[in-house]
């Protein structure tokens, strides 16, 4: 009887603390080898299932991605209120270790300005490339193509791609939206160092931002046949008081005939960007 009670308590602990059990499973997991037979096979279509694209920090639900002062508290902005719950922000525990980004005071002020004018400033609204790490937790999948000595990431959102170097070519010649990625391996963890990013991308719809001095160090670790543990360390002394980290699971898309589809959203925003120059402009 006593042994049965103890066994039941142990089972209850495993149910109540799933993270512990998953961590142990992940530590013990050895992924199948990829091309060449040396490194784990990361080929596949992956997607984050979280609220990070709304706001990577710990946050409560909000009525809109862009707010204004109301008589009894914040209300949706003039630009967003007609969209109702479509532009509301779901709550999330966030993906930032510690919950908050360690901004310098002037950078925090800029973040707040960004958030207050989201509809005009967020690059996602105009379908600009999302940058890194945001590309990995957009609400659309991405695909890893891994060869014996090659790596290529393709994203459904905006047709973004990353052709990843496996040998360091030296400093990036120019800053770009997706930066320059250089890969190495730490055991079974794929490590990608990203530099040469411009200062135009955001981390999310909440206005979290960085400078062109940012370096992102990504780590992709297989923890089961259908899961990768993803983390990214952010270094940017111009914007933040110290390095900080985000982490999340990535899930393999398992649907039959799963493939990336075209979502080249540039054509969807032509009216927004260029409509005022029509010979006979539409109502705006």
Q: What do you see in this structure?
A:
With 284 residues, this protein is α+β, with helices and mostly antiparallel strands. The protein folds into 3 domains: 1-30; 33-57 and 95-277, Beta Barrel (Lipocalin); 59-92, no CATH class. It is 17% helix and 24% strand. It is globular. The relative contact order is 0.16.
Detail the topology: elements first, then pairings.
Layout: H1 2-16, H2 18-28, E1 44-47, E2 67-70, E3 73-76, H3 105-116, H4 118-121, E4 142-146, E5 151-155, E6 161-164, E7 180-186, E8 189-195, E9 215-224, E10 227-235, E11 244-252, H5 270-274
Antiparallel strand pairs: 1-4, 1-11, 2-3, 4-5, 5-6, 7-8, 8-9, 9-10, 10-11
Features:
single chain, 284 residues, alpha+beta, Lipocalin, 3 domains, nine-stranded antiparallel sheet, two-stranded antiparallel ribbon, 11 strands, 17% helix, globular
Number of self-contained structural domains? 3
Structural class: alpha+beta
What is the CATH first-level class name of the largest domain?
A: Mainly Beta
The CATH topology name of the largest domain reads: Lipocalin
Taking the sheet with the most strands, its summary is:
9 strands, antiparallel
Helix content: 10-25%
Question: DSSP strand (E) fraction?
Answer: 15-25%
SSE string, helices as H and strands as E? HHEEEHHEEEEEEEEH
Give the beta-strand count.
11
What gyration radius follows from the Cα positions, in whole Å? 21 Å
* Terminal CA distance: 75 Å
Taken from the alpha-carbon principal axes, the silhouette is globular
**Major sheet: arrangement of strands:** 6-5-4-1-11-10-9-8-7
